[in-house]
Amino acid sequence: MSTTSTKKPEQAALLEVAASEKPEREEESKSSARYASPRPFREWTPEQGQLLPQYAREVLRKGTPKWAHARLPPPESWRKGTPLEGDVVLLDGQGVPLVEVEGLELSALPTRYGRARSEQDRSLFELAWRRMGLPAVFEPGSDESPWLIFQDASGVGSALADMMESWGGACIRVEAGQGLRKLGARHFAVTPGSREDLRAMLQQCLPSGGSCAGVAYLWGLDMPAPDMPGEQAIDEAVRACGGALRIVQEVLRLGWRDPPRLWLVTRGAYPVLGSPATGALQAALWGLGRAVGHEHPELRCTCVDLDPSSPMVDVESLGRELAARAEDEQVALRAGARFVARLVRRSGAKELFMEPLLPAAGRPFQVETPPAGSFGGVSVRMSERREPGPGEVEIAVEASALNFIDVMKTMGLYVMKGKGGAPGVPLEGLPLGLDCAGRVVAVGAGVTNLKAGDEVVAFTPSAMASHVVTDARFAVRRPSGMSAAEASSIPSVFMTAWYALHHLARLQKGERVLIHSAAGGLGLAAVQIAQSLGVEVFATAGTPEKRELLRSLGIQHVMDSRTLAFADEVMRLTNGEGVDAVLNSLSGDAITRSMEVLAPDGRFLEVGNRDIHAGRALDLSQFSRRLIYAAIDLVGLREQRPALCSRLLQEVVEQMAAGTLKPVTHRAFPVSLASEAFREMAQGQHVGKLVVTMDDPHLRVVPPRAGFRVREDATYLITGGLGGLGLEAARWLVEHGARHLLLTGRGTPSEAVQKDLETLRAQGARVEVARADVADARRLAEVVARTRGDMPRLRGVLHCAGVLDDGTLEQQEPARFRTVMAPKIQGAWNLHMLTRDEPLDFFVLYSSMSALLGLPGQGNYAAANAAMDALAHYRRQRGLPALSVNWGPFSEVGLAAAHANRGERLAHQGMASFTPRQGAMMLERLLQEGAVHVGAVALDVRQWLEFFPSAASLRIWEELAAERHGEGQRGRSALLMELRRANASERTGKMEAYLRERLAQVLRIDPSRVGRHEPFRGLGLDSLMSLELRNRIEATLELKLSVTLLWAHSTLAALAVYLLDQLGLTPKQADAPAPAAPAEQPLLMNRPSAQAEPEAHQLAELSEGKLLEMVDDVLAGWEDTQ
């Protein structure tokens, strides 16, 4: 934009548009759209935030623009928290309009999420697990030196030694015991952590001072599962880490010219691909191993994590890993597959796919739209029950019926104005359901019409749940003898039809009504009501089977809803008189034709919403016949005319009780198969209603949605609360509304700390200080008990306690490990055990970046914090809140700031310090995003790796190191990296293998059925499935792909070639696959046959408007579900 001008009151801006590298085709198109962000208008101040486009009502495009003329309302009408709506016109060089954007909505993104967020993105890191092949070449037994196998008690180490020996290698087996004992020719027992035992054993087994081929340390496998007292946890951690520490020290003392490689073997330390983190405490060895790698790269210390569910399955893979001497130093083996760790910049999307599934028994839950990027279906998430307020009742839901609005929400086709939605982009976490039936379990004050135990039917938002609280006016006793599934199918469809035909149209006996999509739930309800009123029914439906069903109900005049021929047929059947009312759910030209068949004084009853949301104009000349147009929105009626809505529910249920009306036919799905019900409704093949039942012993639910919430009526516990980090956490909580804080510390507050506490109290917070060591479980239990007595319920924990005792590995002792592990491991485990049954909103562990990087001199600190990190994963997998943040240094508070020159030294190495305010903003963001384990550090990767050149060779840094060379590896998927590494001749096969797996998942068929030249349509891929598949491909390959992708490239071979070309990885001509089969017909399912379908090669020549018109034809097939 080179020039800008503004004028009032219109608030217009004239902007020059940068020249496009690829001009638009000179043709007209029309669509809804999302846009790149414009610069804020001059009157919009920086404090108000950056304006981001959210939605546009209509776009009309005719050519390539040169200028943009943008209009917004005057500033005095701009209100915080509400979108701005304006228009944009793009002009050519002579000022002729080329593009008109009407109804462009702009929402403000707070400033701190603009500049500050981009800075945060550069400072957030995580471990990513990349799947790699097993080592292909290895030479077992080629080294005459023996292996030292420190074998566990569960048999994995023994099996490993047996295997290595069967390959021709020699192994010395070492068990954990009490004192040095020789158990066989090459079999010993030593005391864990005993330098003397280890030294004597090495002298016996290696008497000539010779070296060994490698050291495999498996004692960590003997650690129990994480649910143990803190005292036991620290004993186990010190024992395992102490044993590994002594091995490192002895190997270094011996000074072998070619020191052996050290392997630290764990089981379930990390939740790779969602595997259970049952070995969380063993992760301490990974922290220690990273420090060994930094301090002594010559040992090539490698951590290998086995599958917790079947470690013996991975013994052969482990043996190959050791014998092959692969380069990766952080490896996870899972059921024969091999994964390697890479430190990467964080992508918040990962947490979306890592949510555990927990048995639902006894847990309240809510069915909701799925997380962004999870490609369809629904989520069943744990929820919180609440007491009903005045005039409310709580219902234990037994069944809930689907409505088309629910399907639209899950597919991203329902745009909620002001909520940031856009077509095709579903908003995650929207509760689903409007209709339900169940039993009243609690009533609020003032409710007299219902009591606990009453069986009811209700019309209420969020109805698809185990429990729902609703206004008592919208719940009535269900008729005797009616099942919950039947009753749940009543409210929306019968209330809508009753209101339309009885209240608004006031149909009388002998009149005529046209009911569109009459085989859906709403249509069948309307047919019953019309017949009960003695009205002659004309009906449409989309398939021969549905039309035959309508005829079986006694309807004589049945037509096809997929063509416009119904209008002529109605006029013929009525001798040109038309009908007295139309109940419409169709869109586009079907509306015009439907209005044409209305007789004078006719009533047009609109129950669809697509054309209303699109702002489609009506031909007002139709109203010369004194027509009435009524748009029916039952949800809006409930909000704005509750008394009328309540009366509608009462009247409909009374008609049911009297036998005048009956529930429509329905099909029930258990809630564990709710996604199947939504898929069936989206395809529009069902008849009547689809119902989800809640009594399902197979249901598993995801944990409560993560987020940051501070309650005034809750207590927040901060350990290390009298230190710098703890006090900053206290300030942060009070700023966000906390009014009850419980701070613990080993000492008493200093005078300076007392002043800080008084400042917090002056802000309205009750701040209690308890002298307690977090490692003391008994004392900590007494502190936590206060939140069940004289303080409100505990809702949040921030574990900030910590202590340093730095020293090189040669200087360290197990006792020094215990000192550092006491507040971290023992304290964190105490907190975990004491709060497992508390309704916590968050459980935050202040960890250290040393756990991820293995900072030199902090082996004990790295080990302690790595165990805390794994504890966070373990808790989240069990539905408990947890976030562990590997903090870098802080400039004003914390352990780094407390030690002279530590911050300066780290800055010189490439690790800058955060201010406390920056840390608070990051923590809030991570809680909001539902993160589990994140590194937060202002790290200059280039400077760090230049300062530690030995670290640059570690494979963990591979992707970050690539940034130094501009290779842009950040955020790339494993598939992208694999494709780029592959030879040109291999890429097509790899891409086809990926596509075959994705297609099979979407179609739910065996991958072997997907041939290279098999047309997708022949495999059963419909339009909805093609949308899901396109979304999956976009997410993996980081491409923006057309909605016509699977129409234009409709075989596996053709699609693979196209995608490789888009990635710039097209194979050479000689390596290209065989020519694809002839182009198939495009995947347009359930489309009217009035017009021939275009060939695949013609699609690229169609305008965007034409393509969207074709999509609308497909969507029209869904309208029967009304």
Could you explain the architecture of this structure?
The chain has 1122 residues and is an alpha/beta fold. The protein folds into 5 domains: 104 residues, no CATH class; 220 residues, Rossmann fold (3-Layer(aba) Sandwich); 169 residues, Medium-chain alcohol dehydrogenases, catalytic domain (Quinone Oxidoreductase, Chain A, domain 1, Alpha-Beta Complex), CATH 3.90.180.10; 164 residues, Rossmann fold, CATH 3.40.50.720; 148 residues, Non-ribosomal Peptide Synthetase Peptidyl Carrier Protein, Chain A (Orthogonal Bundle), CATH 1.10.1200.10. Helices cover 33% and strands 21% of the residues. The strands form 7 sheets. The protein has a 17-stranded mixed beta sheet, with helices on both faces. Strands 1, 2, 3, 4, 5, 6, 7 and 8 form an 8-stranded antiparallel beta sheet that branches. Helix 9 crosses helix 10 and helix 30 packs antiparallel against helix 31.
Summarize the structure.
This protein is an alpha/beta fold and 1122 residues long. Helix content is 33%, strand content 21%. The chain folds into five domains: 6-109, no CATH class; 131-350, NAD(P)-binding Rossmann-like Domain (Rossmann fold, 3-Layer(aba) Sandwich), CATH 3.40.50; 358-490 and 666-701, Alpha-Beta Complex (Quinone Oxidoreductase, Chain A, domain 1); 495-658, 3-Layer(aba) Sandwich (Rossmann fold), CATH 3.40.50.720; 974-1121, Non-ribosomal Peptide Synthetase Peptidyl Carrier Protein, Chain A (Orthogonal Bundle).
